[in-house]
C-alpha cells in the first residue's frame, strides 16, 4: 500500500492548507514568498513568513489521520508514505507511536522538503548540504549559517525549483503498488499529482479521501468523500476485522 498526502491531512491539526477558502495562497502571493527570486530580492520578508509558519506548526499536534498512517507503516508490508507536506507531522506521529509498531520516520518520502531543515543560500564548504534546525522563533531574521555567516534558506522546494531526483525516484518506485490512496490533496501540483496515474497504469486499486471534488476524483476506483481524520480511522477499524 502506498499513500500520498497533501495539506488536507494536517488541516485538523490547525495547519492551513494552500488552496480553498482559508488557504495560504488566498492571502499570500507565492511569487513574493516561495520562489528563489523572492528570496534573492527580500530574504527578510521570506524568512518572516517561514518563521511565522514554523511557529504555527510547532504549536500543532498530529491528528488521527497521521496516527492511522503511522500505524499502517507497521501493519502493511512495504507500506510507503509520500507526502507533499513540509510540516513534519507524519514524522511526529511516527515518533510518538510505540517503537517498532509504527512507520519509521525515515520511510516518509518528502517530495517538497521540510520546513524544519535549512541549507546555505550560497554553497558553503563548511556546512552539511542541509541540516535540521528547530529554532522557533528565530532571534535574528534572516537567520545565518554559523560557519560562513551568510544567509541560510528553508529546506523546502519553491516554485520554479526542481524536486530532488532521488526523492522522485523513490516516489515513482512507491507508486508501483497494489493499493494507492491519495489523501487531502487538491491534485493540482505536479509531479506529485502524477503518482496516482503511475499507480493506476501499474494496475493499483486507487482511492481518494477528500471532502471536496478534485481532478483526481473521477479517475479513482473509489472516492471517499470526507475529512481524512474521520475516514482514515474508520477504514482502519474496518480493516481490523479482516
Ligand atoms: P491544497 O491546499 O492545494 O489542497 C488541500 C486539499 O485538502 C483540498 O483538496 C481540500 O479539499 C482538502 N482538505 C481540506 N481539509 C481536509 C481534511 N480535513 N481531510 C482531507 N482533505 C482535506 O494542498 P496540496 O494539495 O497539499 O507546494 O498542495 C500541493 C502543493 O501546493 C503544496 O505542497 C505546496 C502548494 O503550493 C509547495 O510548496 C511546493
Q: Report the uncertain regions.
A: none
Bound compounds, each kind once, are: 2'-O-acetyl adenosine-5-diphosphoribose
Classify the secondary structure makeup into a structural class: alpha/beta
Q: What is the general shape?
A: globular
Q: What order do the strands of the largest sheet run in, or round the barrel if closed?
A: 3-2-1-7-8-9
What is the terminal-to-terminal distance?
Answer: 16 Å
What does the largest sheet look like? 6 strands, parallel
Percentage of residues assigned to helices: 25-40%
Note the beta-strand portion.
Answer: 15-25%
Chain-averaged pLDDT: 94
Radius of gyration based on Cα positions: 18 Å
Q: How many β-strand runs?
A: 9
DSSP helix count?
9
H and E order: EHHHHHEHEEEEHEHEEH
Give an account of the 3D structure:
The chain has 242 residues and is α/β, with parallel strands linked by helices. The chain is 33% helix and 17% strand. The chain has 9 helices and 9 strands. A 6-stranded parallel β-sheet has the order 3-2-1-7-8-9, with helices on both faces. The chain has a 3-stranded antiparallel β-sheet with strand order 5-4-6, covered by helices on one side. Strand 7, helix 8 and strand 8 (205-210) form a beta-alpha-beta unit. The radius of gyration is 18 Å and the shape is globular. The model has no long low-confidence stretch (mean pLDDT 94). 2'-O-acetyl adenosine-5-diphosphoribose binds next to helix 9.
